[in-house]
Write a structure and sequence with these properties.
239 residues, alpha/beta, Rossmann fold, DNA polymerase, domain 1, 2 domains, six-stranded parallel β-sheet, 10 helices, globular, binds 6-O-phosphono-beta-D-glucopyranose, phosphoprotein, isomerase, hydrolase, hydrolase activity, carbohydrate metabolism
Length: 239
Amino acid sequence: MLGLPAQITVALFDLDGVLTSTATVHSDAWRRAFDAFLAERSAGAAGEDLRPFTERDYLDHVDGRPRLDGVRGFLASRGIAVDDTVVEAIAEAKNAEFLATLARDGVSAYPGSVRYLNAARAAGLRIAVVTSSKNGAAVLEAAGLTSFVEHRVDGNTIVDEHLRGKPAPDSYLRGAELMGVAPANAAVFEDAISGVQAGAAGRFGYVVGIDRVGGSQAENMTAAGADIVVTDLDALLPR
Ligand SMILES: O=P(O)(O)OC[C@H]1O[C@@H](O)[C@H](O)[C@@H](O)[C@@H]1O
């Protein structure tokens, strides 16, 4: 059904970059927050790489991961050690940037994803959202997608329930549990390598990679465990 194996009864969708075009809003907010930090730290300790934040940095260290994991992962990749107060300050600066853009520009859902959600609902495929973002509820609401979703696991659930963030499978496993199905009966839809890794680690029945960036992303998704890679969910709908 809908491009998925017959045993799949539940669809677990990541949100930013899968259903809504907010991955770039996150990525821009991160760039502004990290670049302000890097510029200010111009006289860093030896071995620190203080060059500006790049799209590659986002994809490798931040994309799909909970907010604080993203800060820690990126700083570690640059050889920068800071205490928790600094980690939290960068995270807060990023969130302020993200919320400001959201308030200014709103949120748009990918038309192909909305078509897929409607087709899924019509076909009786049950729907949950599994996102690392603490802004998941607000983004779903702003995009007009809340009513499609039976359960939501988000960045707040991850903190409250002490789950490990993606690339660990915990948040997806919690999604399947809330939906009352085994991982083998659920499909994971992801645009981040960390999320594809989470789907593969949880032994989900099918892992769909959505390549929104091009370049080597599709190849990297396959290597991370995606069963199929498409550039839009539309590609899974009957022609
Ligand atoms: O800062 P938030 O809204 O809690 O989001 C955390 C992460 O959520 C993920 O969904 C995004 O892919 C990341 O870019 C983002 O950093």
